[in-house]
Amino acid sequence: GFKVLASASHYWPLEDVDGIHEFRDTDGDIVEGMVNKGIYVTEKKGVTFLFFGSYRNSCISNPEACGPEGVTFSFFWKTQDQQAKLLPASGGRVISSGFKICSNEGEGSVEFYTRGNAMMKWKASFSPPGPYWTHILFTWKSREGLKVYVNGTLNTTDPDGKVFYDYGEPSADLLAGPGGEQGRRYLNGAFDEFIIWERALSPREVQQYFTAAVGVQVLLSSTLPWPLMTTTAAPVPPTNAYHHIISDLGQQRGSSGSPSASLGYLQNISFSLPSKSLSEHTALSLTQAFLKAIEDFMLLSNRIDGPETPRVFSSLILTIDTVMAHVSQSLDENSLPLAVEGSSSVADYAVVKMHPQTLNVSHYRFPSRGHSYISIPSEAFHEKAWITIVGLLYHNMHYFFHNINPLDTRIAEAAAYKGCVISASSYLISAKVEPLPRLSHNLSGSPLITIQLTHQLTPRQYSQALNKSNRVHLYCAFLDYSNGTGVWSNQGCVRESGDLNHSVCLCNHLTNFAILMQVVPLKLAREHQVALSSITYIGCALSIFCLTITLVTFAVLSSVSTIRNQRYHIHANLSCAVLLAQGLLLASFQLSPGTLPCKILAILLHFFFLSAFAWMLVEGFHLYSMVIKVFGSEESKHLYYYGIGWGCPLVICVISATSSLHSYGESGNCWLSLEDGAIWAFVAPAMFVILV
Q1: Helix, strand, or coil here: 111?
Q2: Where are the transmembrane segments (predicted)?
Q3: Which of 132, 269, 555, 597 could be cross-linked to 225 through a Cys-Cys bond (beta carbons 3.0 to 4.6 Å apart)?
């Protein structure tokens, strides 16, 4: 749960409250709640307001900017408490430009607004908090709509929303507090632990965070305050041949060994499992203990070298497959059919042993709910004997399969673009069936496995995919262990349909699957490259030639008194800035992106092109002053003009280069990056000059 909290985008601890844990004393780097940038409480005419800093055009104030990851808001809330010292609510109301939470006359509700092509509103009602601290959390995703969780449990939803026209809160500041109407009866209330994730938490993560925040393991209920809930009983330890393995896995938790030693330990466990039957309870205990050890290993991932990460985690997945296969094959045959199912922070899992005739549906699906699943048609189960099915849906494993060299895969289409790396863009999902199902060898035949996976794109991947100058390739791939190590391959799989948000694949075998994404920049045809290069060189050369003549002319005529005025200085400086910018632009074509000379040239280009705009601004001011104030308009303003023309661009460049040096000279040319917002250090000042 504290790991879920550590992944938050914004966190405000507010006051210390008994019974609610804070993150202040742990090794986190979320500090917005402790500085003036974030949340603060102020008094105005006897009314308490809770303000947030301005987040205009951000995911917080404009949910449309959240992308496919969605957004989550979480806080603890209570009302009807005369002793509350934190925040009186406005009739229990919390409002922002993106959402509104109300508690009036026995009914609570969350209203969520987006301002895309059409104004949309989602609304979900729930029982309002009483005099006990109550945890309210709601998530929103464009494809799933609004979900409201009360005390860790999904309480109500509004998946579709409706078009709405009357919501007129123009401010991008989040605001909680009374509206100030006289004579209105307000409820006293208090808030604590306000947290925002710029992604939608999964139900499991919601449960984990709530459990950690209140500090007890509980049977979650949306109708009772958590101090009155019943704590769960501790599981009974198994007393068989697997007991020492489960105990050893628990004792290894928290040990800070190297990643290679930890992986070796887990592999040894997978090879040394006893050939003894497993009861349902022991199978569940073993699975939980092993996945908990996997979770601890994943915490060591920052100590693994970048290029080695995919190889290490493909070995880890093979180890998990080995253990889960042993569990499925060792289930006690005296208690068949049976199913071992559950969820951990690593994966949702299911181990099922059943007779094919008991499958009275057209297909077996794992997991049974959600948008990511594997579906096996019933006609593939041809055997009359018992079958075992092992399913795993990994929650975070895809994060470790980024920057894969396409030459290290068995995907022929990807290898054709050897300079463009591949990244996993969906959850990893796995299914194994024994005996093997009977599937078509031909991908155009039947039966085939259907795999649907929702894409989990990072903001960078999402912006790259939307960039019209890129082509996005999505591959239905699996980890092929035929040569002993996991290699991504797409043999026997085809992507049947989908879009940027999901993919549907057909495969004629079972293993670990994921959607791999490769972004390929579109290349101009040779004739277009030649034409553009010719236009650039000829145009810049002509510009440099004419600017040189201009500067020489000013120099020759500088002794003539009639031209020795401020317009001469303005034109000369403008010509000098453009001349140097054009010359550096031609020189930049000879440098390779990512090198130090290219970075230096990119900073100089930024400075001189900004200076050209700045001197145009100076000329505008000068002409304006001459028109408005005809007499006496020629008094010297050299100091101000030089400050604007050269000083302002220098300040902007120093700030930009200091804060984001990595954005210069990296993305294909010696200029500012277009992907991380650094380009606005040039575009914004230029647009300001044009507006003026």
Answers
A1: strand
A2: 535-558, 570-588, 600-618, 639-659, 671-691
A3: 132
